[in-house]
Amino acid sequence: MSVSDDYRISEIARNEEQLSQIFVANLIVLQDEVTEDATWLAKHLGVENVDEIDGVTMTSGDDPEGFSALSSFKRNAPLSSCDPADYDGEFPTPNRIGSEYQCYFEYAEDSLDDLLDVPEWINPNSDKPRLFDRFLDESRLDYAWLTLNGTGWRYADAAAALDRLRKSAPADGNFQMMADIWISFASEYDGGY
Question: Cα dist. 32→26, 38, 54, 70 in Å?
Fold first, then answer.
């Protein structure tokens, strides 16, 4: 997610191996060499190609396009590491809706005008709290979740909605924990998103 890009998100990894290698690469770039910290992180994330990662960071730093030189990025390359014309994933690209399960922040703002059949939760002008209530009443927890991940919310209202979703969702420890953390942070902010 990029604060400077109106909180848009980008796909930097498509699997755990890629994400772990990005973490190691970022630490190498931050510390300007392979340090004990980078070696420790690599070990604990199961990353065995630290030398390969270091070589990539020497030529491209932590630029996502440079990660395409890593062997784990040769197949299933994330959008940020490949030419959009070669991309075969589900993340939305210009002029293409990815899958049914995308949220507002996954789209470049200027690309929404050109897309057909945009789901209601992506429309920046839809009434998100009302839409959320409708989806929750219809037991469409997936769509309710996607609606929370779009503009048109005051933090307090989003926190209350997430609490309702959490109580409606099947027991999932990770989701419950994430919801608790988000709700506690949201209660500290005025305004919305």
Answer: 10, 10, 10, 19
Count of alpha carbons within 13 angstroms of residue 103, beta-carbon side: 19
Q: Which H or E element spans position 26? A: helix 16-31
Q: Contacts by 157-160 with C-beta closer than 8 Å and gap 24+?
A: 157/129, 157/192, 158/186, 158/192, 158/193, 159/183, 159/186, 159/187
End-to-end CA distance of the chain: 14
DSSP-H helix ranges across 34-83: 36-45, 50-60
**Local mean pLDDT, 10-residue blocks, the chain (193 residues):** 54 92 96 96 96 96 93 92 86 63 70 73 89 96 91 92 92 83 86 84
